[in-house]
Write a structure and sequence with these properties.
Radius of gyration: 21 Å
Number of helices: 7
Strand content: 15-25%
Length: 350
């Protein structure tokens, strides 16, 4: 039987909450209920709002817990509480939607009430949804690699490279096996330019650790190496937000860390049960991120240098329209040279 509805005061806003005892993370028993997830999000809501303020956010929902149906929701329902705000976003297809805009802890509480496990923010802030203010680096382990390899490349290769460039990155666990690093940037460049800057940075990491890192979009070419998913900087590609829970049996959390903490981190140490106490005894390592809007010029110089060496764009995801200068979007083992022109477009009669 469903538990009766509660009305929770969230910083002066009344948020309706139901089904507190519903299992969401069954392995955790009473510590993995919808109520436990809701209480966790209330405990970190202020920090989340600081990082997500005015961002459009998608919701990864599991209304019946992580073993039930998954709903990836990009649009706010037409019937929604008056306290919610929305933001108009444009997808690669040209279609638009009113996404959830985070402005107050009540928006995060509402998301938890809707069965949201993970919040996925865009790298822009409303109303200027055409110019990212974040460059995001995704160190994504492939089969045969894991978190240890991701943190090693982050600490031993990426961090020194950023230091050389005079740039500051803010790392966090992904909540899974990967590592995410965010760079706050000035809103002077569009998605295409930010993505190309991310490609240049990824290529330099690959050059410095070719046996451990790859930028190949094609899985058949990656081997047992970390993939730097440069396409996470494309329009409508989102990351789990800092402090978001993840769909794992123990309810891990994507947790901001210092670089020193990352060097010895274990992602399973950060869960909806442990993170609130962990945060209570330390300074926020991302506290100054918004005061550090960095220039992309060092990375754009790297883009130029790559182009002079014949290294142009890399493939977009298959759902995106063909982009100018993009290479053929076909996996290498299936590519027949005669079927493609020098610009990477299919030959119509092939």
């Amino acid at each position: 039987m469903a538990s009766k509805a509660e009305e929770i005061d969230v910083d002066g806003v009344k948020v309706r909450f139901t089904n507190r005892d519903k299992p969401f993370f069954p392995k955790l028993g009473s510590k993995g209920t919808k109520g436990a997830l809701f209480d966790y999000y209330l405990s970190v809501a202020d920090r989340m709002v600081n990082l997500l303020r005015d961002r459009p956010v998608h919701l990864q929902r599991f209304p019946d817990g992580i073993d039930g149906e998954e709903i990836y929701q990009k649009r706010v329902p037409q019937k929604h509480p008056d306290y919610l705000e929305t933001c108009l976003i444009t997808f690669p297809s040209g279609r638009t939607a009113d996404a959830l805009k985070i402005t107050h802890p009540s928006a995060i509480a509402w998301a938890a009430q809707m069965g949201t496990v993970t919040l996925h923010p865009w790298q822009v802030r409303c109303p200027d949804t055409e110019h990212p203010d974040e460059l995001r680096i995704d160190l994504d382990p492939q089969p045969g690699t894991g978190f240890v390899e991701a943190r090693t490349i982050a600490v031993d290769v990426l961090k020194p490279l950023l230091d050389e460039l005079g740039m500051v990155g803010y790392p966090k666990t992904s909540g899974g096996r990967g590592v995410h690093v965010f760079l706050r940037i000035a809103t002077e460049w569009d998605f295409i330019e930010v993505r190309r800057a991310g490609i240049a940075l990824a290529r330099e990491i690959e050059r410095r650790a070719p046996d451990a890192v790859t930028t190949s979009w094609w899985k058949e070419e990656r081997g047992e190496r970390l993939f730097i998913d440069y396409n996470q900087n494309a329009r409508d590609r989102t990351f789990a937000s800092a402090y978001s829970a993840r769909k794992t049996p123990i309810a891990t959390v994507s947790t901001p860390l210092t670089w020193a903490e990352l060097a010895d981190a274990d992602p399973d140490d950060y869960t909806i049960e442990t993170v609130p106490d962990f945060l209570a005894g330390r300074d926020d390592p991302w506290a100054d991120i918004d005061s550090n809007a960095q220039s992309l010029l060092p990375l754009l110089e790297m883009v130029k240098a790559d182009e002079e060496q014949g290294l142009g764009d890399l493939p977009y995801p298959p759902s995106y329209p063909k982009m100018p200068g993009e290479p053929p979007r076909v996996q290498p083992s299936k590519k027949v040279a005669a079927n493609w022109d020098e610009d990477g477009n299919p030959v119509k009669d092939a």
